[in-house]
C-alpha cells in the first residue's frame, strides 16, 4: 500500500501529538472507495497514472478526496518536525530567502499579517480543516452536489498546503534527513505536484519556491 504503510516509525516515538486531528473519510462511502482506489494505484508506483481521474468519476469528488488525503499527509509530515519549527527558529513564514508569506483568510483576518511559521501553519491548517468540515463545501453524503465555487475553494486550499511543503523543504530539510523521512516527504510531495499539474490547480508562480525540485521530480518520470 501507500505512505500509511511507512508510518509505523512514528508510533509513540517522538511527537505522539499529531498536529491537527486527522480528517476521516467515512468508511463505506463512495469517497472512501475512491480513496482506496487512489491508494491502490499509488501502490503501482506510476504516480502520473495514479493521479488521473478514474473513468466515470466526478472530477469534484476526485479532487475532494485527494485534497483531504494531502491535508492528512502534510499534517503528519509537519507533525514530525513541529519541535524544530518554533517562534525563534522561524520568526517569519518563509520558503527560502526570497519567499515570505503573510496570513489572511479573508474572513477573520482580512489584511495579511506577518507572523511566525508555526503560527502561520497553525492558522493555515485550522482554516483548511474548517473548509473540509463544511458540508456545504465538501459534502460527504452521496448525491449532495458540490457547490459552484468548489473548484476555486479547492485551488486555494492546495495553494496554501503547498506553502507548508515549501517551508519544510527550505527551512527544515536537515531535520527531515535526520529523522530519515526524506523518502516519505519526497513521495508525498511528488504525488501532490503530479496531482495539481494533472488538473492545473496551482498557478506556476505559486510553485516558484520549489521550481527546481519540481523540475527534477518531473524529469525522472517522462
From TrEMBL:
UniProt keyword terms in alphabetical order: Kinase, Metal-binding, Transferase, Zinc
Residues holding Zn(2+): 85, 90, 167, 172
Annotated GO MF terms: kinase activity
UniProt keyword Kinase, yes or no: yes
Gene3D superfamilies in the record: MOB kinase activator (1.20.140.30)
UniProt superkingdom: Eukaryota
Pfam families assigned to the protein according to its UniProt record, in alphabetical order: Mob1_phocein
Protein known as: MOB1A kinase
The species this protein was found in: Erithacus rubecula
